[in-house]
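Hi L., both proteins are below.
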Amino acid sequence: MKSFLVKNLCKIKESIMNIKAIILDMDGTMLNEESKVSEELHRYLRRLRQEGLKIFIATGRTLLEIENVVPEEFEVDGFVTSNGMAAFVEKEQLFQHSLEPSLVEGLMEEVQKRNLYYEIHPAVGNRYVLKEDQGMILHMIKGERPSSVEENEWLSRKSAIEEHIDWKRELHPNNISKIYFFHTDKGKIKSWISFLEKLKLQHGFSSSSSTENNVEIMAENINKATGVEYLLERYNLSFEEVLAVGDGENDLPLLKRVGYAVAMKNAPNSVKEYVDEQTDFSYKENGLYYYLSNKFKLDK
């Protein structure tokens, strides 16, 4: 047993020494329960970049959603947004995928029958909900957080309807980056996911969930890993030189490809079984900061 542990520790040390880039998820990983980046983590990411490591973000959020939650002086080397639908280096957009307009129209008809919370995210501009569904959306998110919903996701929905959602009278199905669906009843989301799986036989699109209360749809064969490929190509890096940290099933395509994969303590077992290591603390406990500061020890 001791020999096995020593070999495993040596393998971990060797893998870390080869790391040239770190890719981070946001919700449930980098953001705390108030959907903010802690000051300690912000400072440490800056120091890691000063030491020559590339820092990338790979998230289900759009670029506008990212800007709404990170500190003003927050800087990284690149973003993969909307679970792989777009990528950015500084303000330069490397690519952008969009959903089929006919798919968007058909989904809106069906989602209204099911009374699901949704957010339509265009490639440019604010996310929006149809004005006719405003009453249903507000009713679902009012009051105290249901025990079935994670605190950070509930706060994100509260923040969305109070500050970030536009209420539009008409659907504009062109140039849609993603559609986010949510319900406090996990059973309803599970049923919706089953419907989406059947719909994939008629329309080409991908879907992913970060919790049991949500699912997002993107273009076909798109995920965080396909988006990260563009960033690695830009910086002449390989997946083997990357350490990635995530907590949700939408992180799995990326975690399965990188040289060193890390799951947050709060990740489900379905994610933890595919990683090399997990953090000692959750996102609520500033777990990412403690993990990185322990793994990449920098001089004071």
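That was the first. Here is the second:
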Amino acid sequence: MQKPYSIKNIINHGKIKWIYSSDFLFFSRVSTIFELSSFTANYYSYGMVTDGNIILELDGEVLKLNNQNQAFLIHRPFQDIRVLKIDPGTKGVFIFFNKSFINKLDSSISYLMDFILLEKLNRNYFLLSKEDYNYLAELFKNIFDLLYILPLYRWEESAHKLLLFLLKEIDLLLNKYADVDSDSHIGKGVSTLTKFIELVNDNYIEHKSIDFYAKSLNISSNYLYKLVKEQLNDTPLSYIQKSILKHAIFLLEEGKMNISEIAYYLLFDNVSTFSKFFKKKMHLSPTQYQRKKFY
């Protein structure tokens, strides 16, 4: 059985000069040297074309990336990919990173990154507005500029932090493009999943039980569990809790509320219950998280 294509394979096959981690890669000039056959990769990749054109096939779907359609691509491990065409002189902003790179982060950040990466599991391709396309292109460029000037002894630690920041920004921006038509080619199951995600986004503070979401979607709790497990490799309860956790982290980092106020705002019974929930997920108490973040 052929080994999954790795970031090291990209570097070697494309003859890219790269002195940093073999678990993380970024570039803006796209090589026209590419694999002619389809392959399965073991990494995540995010990016878009700013000049020129790329045509590829991802899990059987042909995708075009250029600055006319303002398309943004998300590729995940073990998806089948085949590059069909790259115009000479094509430029873009692309990052590649694998699970090993994520796992080198501390456990709390790694947990949050997993959530960000899983949220868009049912989409590979987003057609952005001109404003959002320009914003992401500039954001990628600024992060690339920083990565190029970092000293080697600080490079990997800083790359972790910059990647997390970038993924958070992408996650927030792509939320507005998350709607999927029930009649689309993606199918009924994913349409139901999308409605579940929307319901969670709107109701996770007031409604923390699976039954509420199953009844709202007119499906059984067992079917909802199976759907979320198949599509997101997660459970409905875990997904709801991750939404609560994201909000709690945002409020802690914002610093406008104390921990008691945050617990009350998120409708926990008391501060102790909130603290136990937070520590179980993040391996830090809310107070410890704030100290680690700001001091």
